[in-house]
Structures are given as structure tokens and as C-alpha cells.
Amino acid sequence: MAIPEFLRDLRETVGQRLLCLPGVNAVVLDDQQRVLLVRRSDDGRWTIVGGIPEPGEQPAQAMVREIHEETAVRAVVERVVAVYAEPPITYPHGDQVQFMSTTFRCRAVGGEARVNDDESTEVGWFALDELPPLSAQCVARIKLALAGGPTWFEEPSLPPG
Fold first, then answer.
1. Which one, of 109, 110, 86, 102, lies nearest residue 144 by Cα?
2. Tally: H helices and E strands in the chain
3. How many CB atoms are located within 10 Å of the residue 116 CB?
4. For residues 100 and 22, is the Cβ–Cβ distance under 8 A?
5. N vs C: which end of the chain shows fewer Cβ within 10 Å?
6. What is the pLDDT of residue 1?
């Protein structure tokens, strides 16, 4: 996996301690309502496209960039589907991170789906009834993107008093 330069620089200062970082991911649909998925090169799992915005980059712009960088598909953002605080992750090399993820629904407008970087080993369009095994998180995000409801977020609890 390619680690962005700004994150490598930050890690030189903070080491492997927990970092809270912005994350973006997308349910990308084509005209046939198929979902664009990538098979990650690090763990072999199928997932929706995702990444990290560069400093100062708008989340939607980061998502469009990540989709193209990873799959060669050109896409436009249609709406925000959900906002999640992901559980903390410790990578095999020891770095700790927790992503605050924004999930977008996107529509493909061009390009040919293919592996376009070293972050994935396969890229493909999948009909909703022919999805490969996916994490519960991916399935939930796909369902939310297709439902057309308001943006999902965990309901906050009210402060005491």
C-alpha cells in the first residue's frame, strides 16, 4: 500500500501512536446498478474503493481522485451516504490509526474498470445479486447508498441535564 507523503512525514514525529485521520470511501454505481469493487493487495479482500484525502483536499474531490487512481473509472459524487468513526486499527508493522470515514454514493461517467495502481489485484463491476464475499461494513454501506435515505450517522446521546 502506498502511504501518502504527508502521513510518512507525520509518522516520523509521532511514531506508531494512534492517529485519527479522515477517510473517504464510495459505493460507485454504473448505469446497470452494478457496484465497483476492488480486491485489496494487502489482505485479498473485496471492498468498495477508499482512501485518505491529502491535506487541504475536499473529501468529495479526494473520492473522485481515489476512484480514478485505483480503478481508472471516472466518477461524479452524487451524495454523502454515511459518516462513521471506524474502530481503531493496528497494521502489521505497528502503526495505529482510526479513520473518520465519509461514505459517498458515486456514479461512473467514463473510463474502463481495471487495476490502476498497486493497492489492488483485481477490479470489477458486480451485480447486486452476484457480490463476492464482503465485510458487514461494505454490505451496510452499499445498502445505504441504494436506499436513498438521509445521511446515516450514529445518533449522539444527549449530555446530562
1. 102
2. 3, 8
3. 18
4. yes
5. C
6. 57
pLDDT tens-digit profile of 38-61? 999 988 999 999 999 999 999 999
Contacts of 18 (CB under 8 A, 6+ apart): 88, 96, 97, 98
What the block records as the C-alpha cell of 42 is 494487502
pTM: 0.91
Rounded to whole angstroms, how far apart are CA atoms 28 and 51? 14
Residue-wise pLDDT for 11-33, tens only, equals 999 999 999 999 999 999 999 99
Max Cα–Cα distance, the chain, nearest Å = 56
Amino acid at 116: N
Q: What gap in Å lies between CA 80 and CA 36, rounded to an integer? A: 17
Residues β-bridged to residue 21? 99
